[in-house]
Specification:
Distance between the termini: 16 Å
Order of helices and strands: EEHHHHHEEHHEHEEEEEHEH
Structural class: alpha+beta
Helix content: 40-55%
Largest sheet: 4 strands, antiparallel
Number of helices: 10
Radius of gyration: 28 Å
C-alpha cells in the first residue's frame, strides 16, 4: 500500500496501472522515486478534482462548456478537425469499425480534457467557499513567497499610446490609401493637417489607442516590429493589424468589447512606456489565484483523508530503462 484516500487504498500495482494507461504523450519518464511520487500525487489530485467537478456541476456551482474542451483538443491536434466532416470513411481506406474506433478515441480525449477543466474550475469555486468559511486564509507571508517565485513574470508590458489613421482592409484600396498618407508626409505635409483632412471625410478613420507588447498577443507582432526603437513623435506605417477585440469604456463608465476589423494603420507615437515589474501590492490580484488554488487543494486532501507513504514506493533507479520498470513489473 503506497497511499490511502479515506477508506480507499492504492497499491503499487495501482500506480503501475496508472502509468501504463496514460496516453503516450502524457506519460513521464520514471528514473527515481521522486518521479514516482509526483505521479502518485498528481493521480490522487486528479481523482479528487474529478469527483469534486462532477459534484459541483451536479449542484450547479460550476459549468464548463464541452466546446471549450473540443477547441483545446483540436488546437493541439489540428489534423483531427476533419474527422467530424468525414461521411465516407471507406474513401480514405477505413472500414466503418476502424473509423468508429478513431472517432471514439478522439471523443475520449475530449472527455478527459473536459473533466480536467471541470475539476480545475471546481477547485477555484471550492477556494472561494473555503475563504468565505474561514477554512483557508491568505497571509502577507503567502503573498511574499508567491511574489518571490513569480516576480519576473509579474510585469506591466511595454506599451505605446498612439494616434493614427486606420483604413479597414474591406475598404477599397485600403493599403494604397495608407501608403498615400506616408507620401503626403514625405512631401512635407504636417501630420496634424493630414489627420484633420481624413477626419473631415470620415471621423471613424481616426483612432486613438494603446497597445501592449504582450508576447502572447501574436496579432500585434507586425505592429511591434514596425515600432521597434520608435520615439515619441515618430509617424510609422503602414502596418497591417489583424482583427481583434478592444476593451473600451462607454460614456457611462461601463466596459464593453468592441470588435476591430483587419486594417492598415499609419500612426504617431504619442507616448511609450517601458516594461516594468509590478510591486507586490500591484501584483496582489495576480498572486491570489495560485495561492488560493493550492490551499484549497491541500484542505481538500486533508478533508478526504489523503495519506501518502513515500517510503513504500519502489526505487526505479535500480532499473536501466524506465520501460523496464513500467512493463516489467
Amino acid at each position: 500500500i503506497v497511499a490511502r484516500v479515506g477508506d480507499q487504498i492504492l497499491r503499487r500495482a495501482d500506480l503501475y496501472a496508472v502509468l501504463r494507461e496514460m496516453p503516450d504523450e502524457e506519460r513521464p519518464n520514471i528514473f527515481n522515486r521522486g518521479d514516482l511520487l509526483r505521479v502518485l500525487r498528481t493521480h490522487i489530485d486528479d481523482e479528487l478534482k474529478l469527483a469534486l467537478g462532477q459534484q459541483m456541476a451536479a449542484e450547479g456551482k460550476v459549468d464548463i462548456s464541452r466546446a471549450q474542451a473540443e477547441e483545446i483538443y483540436f488546437e493541439r491536434n489540428p489534423d483531427q478537425r476533419v474527422i467530424r466532416r468525414i461521411t465516407d470513411p471507406s474513401a480514405l481506406g477505413f472500414t466503418a469499425q476502424e473509423f468508429q474506433s478513431i472517432v471514439e478515441e478522439v471523443e475520449q480525449s475530449i472527455d478527459r480534457i473536459y473533466d480536467r477543466l471541470l475539476g480545475e474550475e471546481a477547485v477555484y469555486a471550492l477556494a472561494r467557499e473555503y475563504l468565505d468559511r474561514g477554512v483557508i486564509e491568505v497571509t502577507q507571508e503567502d503573498l511574499r513567497q508567491e511574489y518571490a517565485l513569480m516576480r519576473d513574470d509579474l510585469v506591466y508590458f511595454e506599451s505605446i499610446e498612439f494616434v493614427g489613421l486606420r483604413f479597414p482592409a474591406r475598404m477599397p484600396n485600403a493599403e494604397g490609401e495608407a501608403a498615400r498618407v506616408q507620401r503626403m508626409l514625405q512631401a512635407g505635409e504636417r501630420w496634424e493637417d493630414v489627420i484633420e483632412r481624413y477626419y473631415a471625410v470620415d471621423p471613424s478613420l481616426v483612432v486613438s489607442s494603446r497597445i501592449e507588447n504582450n508576447p502572447a498577443a501574436t496579432k500585434f507582432r507586425g505592429f511591434w516590429v514596425t515600432a521597434a526603437g520608435a520615439e515619441e513623435g515618430d509617424v510609422l506605417g503602414p502596418v497591417f493589424v489583424p482583427a481583434h477585440d478592444l476593451m473600451i469604456l462607454t460614456p457611462e463608465g461601463e466596459r464593453q468589447t468592441q470588435s476591430i476589423p483587419d486594417a492598415y494603420l499609419v500612426f504617431e507615437v504619442v507616448s511609450r512606456a517601458p516594461e516594468t515589474i509590478k510591486t507586490i501590492e500591484e501584483a496582489r490580484l495576480d498572486l491570489l489565484p495560485g495561492i488560493l488554488y493550492r490551499k484549497a487543494l491541500q484542505a481538500l486532501r486533508e478533508e478526504k483523508g489523503v495519506e501518502i507513504y513515500e517510503d513504500r514506493l519502489p526505487d526505479p533507479s535500480r532499473f536501466m530503462q524506465s520501460d523496464e520498470f513500467l512493463y516489467g513489473m
